Amino acid sequence: MHMEMLAHAVMHATVAGVIGFFVLFAASKASGIVRLVGTILGWWLWIIAVLCIVCVFVCPMMGDKMGGHWGMHGDWMHSSNTAAPAASAMAPAKPDAAPAEPKKP
User: How many Å is the maximal CA-CA distance in the chain?
Assistant: First the structure.
């Protein structure tokens, strides 16, 4: 695991957690539907913060299981299961023959 990836995840999780804290604090002072929406939004931000940290540890363990041939390396462009072109498609085109002259009686 790269330390930069962990550092970015910790920074993003910290920002999401702090914003979530202030949203929950503001929601506790509100009333009615604003309180409900603020509470849901605050908890959602905290869940995102936790998932950000969890993803740093889980995603590298997945390896190439999720990507298959559609991964980041562009393997789908270089697949080896393409059929060879037909031989007739590679032959040069024949010139049209001149029309035959009609027979004279």
Answer: 112
Q: Phi and psi at residue 33, in whole multiples of 5°?
A: -65, -30
CA 94 from chain centre, in angstroms, equals 49
CA separation (Å) from 81 to 41, 70, 89?
Answer: 49, 15, 19
pTM for the whole structure: 0.54
Distance separating alpha carbons of residues 68 and 79, to the nearest angstrom? 12
Distances (CA, A) of 27 to 11, 45, 48, 68: 24, 13, 18, 44
37-71, pLDDT tens digit by residue? 999 999 999 999 999 888 888 877 766 555 554 55
Give tens-digit pLDDT for 18-28. Answer: 999 999 999 99
